Amino acid sequence: MSGTSEASENSESLKIGGDVEIVDLSPVEKKALEVIAGGGTLASMRGLTPDEIETIYAIGFNLYNQGKYATAEPMFQFACLYSHLEPRYWTALGDCRQMAKNYQPAIDSYGMAFMLDVDNPWPTIQAAICYLAVGDKEQAADALSLGDKAIARKPNETARLRIAALRQAL
Predict the structure, then answer these.
(1) Residue 10, Cα to own-chain centre: how many angstroms?
(2) Residue 62 falls inside a structural domain
């Protein structure tokens, strides 16, 4: 029991968004949330440079291109974890998962990529392909609609044609 009281004595809380309080945080957890809430990344907190994250991503990209999806996925996960604001890393993770036929995790990754860059229709297009692969035409149609909105903000003829082709599969 003394371990529990020690943890409570050393725990802290953090208010985020003005009205949400997260309690029982260790000092390290509190610092991590403060960094992320301030727009930072875990990479900056850990002292990792953008070049180091990019190197890990490049290793994953090379493994992906060799069809070694199970080995590439942790590289992309690392890049996403430590540089979570980079949509390109989330798209690569989604692509890797999609190729491994892990469709729901791929959809989740594409969702993150799209949230970080709502003007890029490609994550929604890839998510629609994943939804079609699992037979969910309604969600695929919703994903394609998001792609249409992205194209309306930033025209992309190739993406528009791809969406039109995928709509025929609905």
Answers:
(1) 32
(2) no
